[in-house]
Amino acid sequence: MGQVFSDLDYDGDAPVRARPVLGEWGPQEVTSTTSRKRQRVTVVLVFVLALIVIIGVGTMWYKLIWG
User: Fold this and answer.
1) Is it the case that residue 40 has pLDDT exceeding 70?
2) CA dist., res. 49 & res. 59, Å (int)
3) Which residue among 2, 40, 43, 51 sits deepest, i.e. has the most Cβ atoms within 10 Å of its Cβ?
4) Considering the entire predicted model, what is its pTM?
């Protein structure tokens, strides 16, 4: 089975001059892998919840209009 998520290495084959500034403990001002994973899950959950709300409101209006 293939990967579920894309590669989280943002540097990839980018030249050194295009990479983020490296500090003593790694890149500075770059989001961590954990926070990126958390953001991906959050976006999916928000999308699903918004879809549920839209379908629920649509169903409510349909029942109100058509009795």
Assistant:
1) yes
2) 15
3) 40
4) 0.57
